[in-house]
Amino acid sequence: MNRVIFMIIVSAIILSGCCTSGTQESKTEIVKEPVTPMELNSFETIKLQAPNLECGVALMTAAKDRMSFREFEETNLSLKHLSELLWMANGVNREDGKRTVPSARALYPLELYAVLANGIYFYDPVEHELQPIVEGDYRNLSGLQPFVDNAPLNLVFIANYEKYIELNMPESKWLYLAALDAGHCTQNIYLYCASEGLKSVVRAGAKEEELLEVLKLGENYQFVVAHTVGY
After folding, report:
1. Is 216 left (phi over 0), alpha (psi -120 to 50) or beta?
2. What are the distances in angstroms from CA 54 to CA 125, 192, 214, 229?
3. pTM of the model
């Protein structure tokens, strides 16, 4: 009998320890990695880092904290934040080339441009790098509100309608489908920013004609949406 009682007590202690351990883990706060603002001293290809898939907060917590901001520090983003942000927005997450966001018929017509203080870069999702397109400060073209002029990063989504033309898709569907894709991209940006403590706001306006002219994009390209990000 004493042996039975002893075993029951031992079992209770073990189970109690397991429960306590689980409770402690659920309350553990995620320690954010130290970040260093990027130095934009030259206008050349920016090799981005692979995303840290273990970082961030729980999805439901990020959804709870998701909100828009319209005041930003002028401090450049860190390479970590820039890299993970672009991957979340439109990066490749599978070996077959498909991405972190869905797209009708997997066409991915949206081209993503990063407008930084020293120029406009094209995001290549396959190579996961920013390729320099036009040198100079063109942030004022990426929006209609004054805060875009000094924000460290303005992301611009431009639809390449050639993707639809090749499949003879009706023109009436082009903007509808591109806007649907843009919604997926911008929500991913919002959730990442909420998870990492960044500020962001999605915007429907930009100096569209001037922007397309600077980028030397033809009539089959259209500005869809922009997204400002910073600290």
Report:
1. left
2. 21, 13, 38, 22
3. 0.84
Least Cα distance to 231 among 21, 32, 3 occurs for: 32
Query: Digits of tens for pLDDT over the chain (231 positions)?
Result: 444 433 433 343 333 333 333 333 333 344 456 679 999 999 999 999 999 999 899 999 999 999 999 999 999 999 999 999 999 999 999 999 999 999 999 999 999 999 999 999 999 999 999 999 999 999 999 999 999 999 999 999 999 999 999 999 999 999 999 999 999 999 999 999 999 999 999 999 999 999 999 999 999 999 999 999 999
Nearest CA to 121 out of 170, 159, 72, 86 is that of: 86
The one-character DSSP state at 42 is S
Question: How many CA atoms, within 13 angstroms, populate the side-chain half-sphere of residue 124?
Answer: 12
Indicate the SS3 state at residue 18: helix
